Amino acid sequence: MKLKTVAFIIFCIGLITSCSQEKVKQLITIENTLNIDRSFETVELSKDFLKVEDLTTIGIRDVSSNKIQVSQLVDIDGDGVVDQLLFQPKIAANSKKKFEVVTISNEDKPVFEERCYARFVPERTDDFAWENNKVAFRVYGPTAQKMIEDGVKGGTLSSGVDAWLKRVEYPIINKWYKKHSDKTGTYHEDTGEGLDNFHVGVSRGVGGIAVKKDSSYYFSKNYTDWKVISTGPIRTSFYLNYEDWDANGNIIKESRVISLDYGSNLSKFEISIEGTNRVAAGLTLHEKDGEVTGSRKNGWVSYWQPHADSELGTTILASKEYFIDFEKYVTSKKDLSNAYTNLNVINNKVIYYAGFGWKKSKQINNKKEWENYLNEFSLKVNTPLIIKQY
Questions:
Q1: I want to staple 126 with a disulfide (CB 3.0 to 4.6 A). Which of 143, 147, 227, 329 is the partner?
Q2: Whole-prediction pTM
């Protein structure tokens, strides 16, 4: 075979391969109707929306830059089949942006570090912890509950949400727990990465729920079961179940899916609940030396407080369909003073966001910046990006 013929065949094979990898399935536009630039908002594309059988070979190309976007695949129901493709476009104020849906190989997909992470932590009783590049949290499991009930030292009885105050972009959960288990340090001291000095007790912490009957609040004990749904560069999500609990004669059934996206200070809580038509999501008031503020228009309550050698803002925020109002509940009983957001339960579900901004992390510098962040976050929640095919 002549050299020119061989070269031509190799060229054709390369061309066919290239075409199969770059084949445009369709074009989509993403529109931002707000007068603010938008980024760190996650777009979810399903197989049905894209009309494809397999998402594992799909990539998203920015038409203007010609770059393949960082994406993440998620198997929501754990059946081994990918259900969603996630990515985070940057869309300027009052504008549209075009993206190509293309088939690509794994080698062509951009590599990005896993910053959104969650796991069960058996080496610290049975915590469950999660984080992204901004914030970290944890909740407590059945072993920690039983230790309290049996009078064993070291347990925790709480369905409140603990805040881990990190001030670095990289993951810290495994590193901090390793210090604890190896006894080489403690995550209660700040060595440059942040620390856990946020007291929860039986309070609602940052986003635990309660049911109000008359003038009293009732809530569950620790979670009973867990399941990680996703970790990756864009989102971590997981499932928690709770034993049925009593709210002054009402039996409450509760489970939740919590997710945390890259770049966000707030976790999303999707609560499945039976036995009540409204819930209250709370923020602990700690020493009661901070200020509770809120916006009924924008659907949030905030607690800005002095915190050790710094300051800290916490929040509950919900869309208009779920948000009712907010209130400050103060009592002399230890850890039971909370700021509450009252929320509608719609079709046995309630959705809200909870999180914090720590001044020492240099993400949020003062109360005004924190409230500006919440107002903008609310705008985005109530005015989602518009995704269209053409």
A1: 143
A2: 0.93
